Amino acid sequence: MIVEMLSGTSMDDYPLTLTSIVERAERYHADQDVISRRPSGAISRTTFGACARRARRLAGALADLGVGSGDRVATLLWNQSEHLELYFAVPAMGAVIHTLNPRLFPDELAFIVGDAQDKVIVVDESLLDVFESFRTAHDFSHVVVVNHSGDAVDTESLDYESLLSGADPVELPALDERLAAAMCYTSGTTGRPKGVVYSHRALTLHSLVAALPDQLEVSARDTVLPVVPMFHANAWGLPYAAALAGARLVLPGPRLDPESVLDLCASEHVTMTAGVPTVWMGMLAALDAEPERWELSELDRLIVGGAAVPRSMFEGFDRHGLTVIQAWGMTETAPLGAVCRRPARLDDGPRDDQYRYRTRQGVASPFFDIRARDENGQAVAWDDAAMGELEVRGPWVAASYHGGRGAENFTPDGWFKTGDVVRIDTYGCIRICDRSKDLVKSGGEWISSVDLENHLMSHPAVAQAAVIAVPDDRWGERPLAVVSLRDGATASPEELREHLAQDLAKWQLPDRFEFMEALPCTATGKFKKTELRTRFVSA
Ligand code: ADP
C-alpha cells in the first residue's frame, strides 16, 4: 500500500496550455472589456468573449492559409485587440506567435524573420512602411494587413477583417504543454538578436505567478494598461494574466507620449500599468508640470522594469500619490523573475530605508531559482556585499536559444547566465550593480555605473544619465557620464561632481561629463550604451 502511494499519484496529468486561458476568458470573462486606442486616437471597445470568438475564426482562417502545428506567425502590431486575438488564436491552434519589434533596424528585422522562418505575417496598416523596409528579405507565404482606413490593401496582401469574415470558427485542439507557443528575440545589445521560444507550460505558469498578489497582482477588479509593448517580452505577460484573471484590458496603440497615456489612465479608470523607466520619466515631468490635470485616484500601481528605476522616480511619483513597484526580468525569462515589494518589516521603518529597499530589483518569483557566482565560479554569499553574476533557472527560463546559438550563456548544470552583476541580501533581495559588460574597473576596483546613474538622476537638473567605461592609462578604466538636462535647466560638471560626492567616494566620480539633448535609446527603451561608447570612447 505504502509502496503504491509512493510510486504513483492519483492526480490527473492535465496539460498546462494557453488554450485553458483562452477558454476561461471566453467562458467566464466574456463580458469583460478589451479597449484599444487606434493609431488615429479613436477608441474601439470589444470584450474577451468577442476576441475569443474571433480568435476561433482566425485560427480557422490561418489553417486555411496553410499554417500548421509549429509554424511561425509573425506580428508587426501595436498593443491592440487584433494582437490579442493573435495571442489567443496562434498558440491555441498549435502554431507559434512571433512578435516583431518595429523599432528595430530593417537589417535586424530581416535577419530575425529569416532566422525564425516565419510563414505568415500580420501587419498593422500604420506599420506598412516598416514592413516594406524588410519585406523582400524573406519569402512569407502570406501577408495579412489590419486595415483601419478602409483603403483597399495591395493585391499581394490579404485584409485581416475579410479573412476573418470568410472563415468558420474552429474547435481548439488538445495540445501537449511542452509545445512551442510563442517566440521573441532579445534586442541584441551584443551580437545578433537571439530567439527565445516559449512553451505553453512556461507561459501558463508565468501567467499564474504574474497574477499573484505579491507579484504583478492582476485580478478581475483591475483595469490593466500595458504600456510595455506586446512585442517586448509578451508585454511582460500581462495580456495572458489579464485574460486568466478577467481584468479589464486597455491597449494603448502607438501613441505613448506622456499626455496620451495619462489621458487614457484617467478616462479608462486604469488601476495598474507597466513599462520601462524612460516612459515614466516623461510621465512624471508631465504630472509635475500640471498636477491637477489628470484624475488618477484609481491608479493603484505602476510596475516599472526593464532597466534600473532611480530613487528620484519613486519619490517623484509618491509626491503625486502614485506607487511605483520595481520588477526585474529578461526576454529569456518570459520575462518575470523578481518583484520588489516593500516587506512588512519596513512598514514603520525610516523612509530612507524604504526608498533604499525599493530601488532594489526584488525577491525572486515563486519557482524561479537564483544564485550569483564570482569570476572563479564560486557561489557568492547572500550578505549584500559579495558581487557575482546572477544565474537563474525555472519553468519559464530559456534552456537554450533558437537554433542552438549563444550556448555560452548556459552553464553545464542548466542555469541561464543573465549578464547582470548583483549583490543579494540575507532575505534574498537582489540588487543589480551592473551588467557584466557595463561595469567600470578602475585601479582593480569595481565602480557601479548603475549607482552613478541613479545618483546623477536624483539631481534636479538631470533628466537622463548613463555611465560608460573609458580606457585609462593609469587606472585601466574610468567612468564617463553622459547626461541630458531637463528643459531650461543648467548644471556644470563641477556641480554634478559635487552632488555625487555627497554619497560616493572620490575615486568613483566620473572624470568626464558629456551633455546631450536626449540619450539614444534601444528598441526597447533602454539607454543605448553601445552608441555612447562608439561616440565618446574614441573621442
Ligand atoms: P536586452 O538585454 O536585449 O535589453 P531584455 O529586454 O530582455 O533585453 O533586458 C533584460 C535586461 O534588462 C536584464 O538583464 C537587466 O540588465 C535589465 N533589467 C531588467 N529589469 C531591470 C531592473 N528592474 N533593474 C535593472 N536592470 C533591469
TrEMBL record:
Domain AMP-dependent synthetase/ligase residues, every copy: 24-402
Keyword Ligase: yes
Organism, as annotated: Mycolicibacterium gadium
UniProt family annotation: Belongs to the ATP-dependent AMP-binding enzyme family.
Keywords: Fatty acid metabolism, Ligase, Lipid metabolism
InterPro entries: AMP-bd_C, AMP-bd_C_sf, AMP-binding_CS, AMP-dep_synth/lig_dom, ANL_N_sf
GO molecular function: ligase activity
DNA-binding found in the keyword field: no
Protein name: Long-chain fatty acid--CoA ligase
Pfam families: AMP-binding, AMP-binding_C
Domain AMP-binding enzyme C-terminal: 452-526
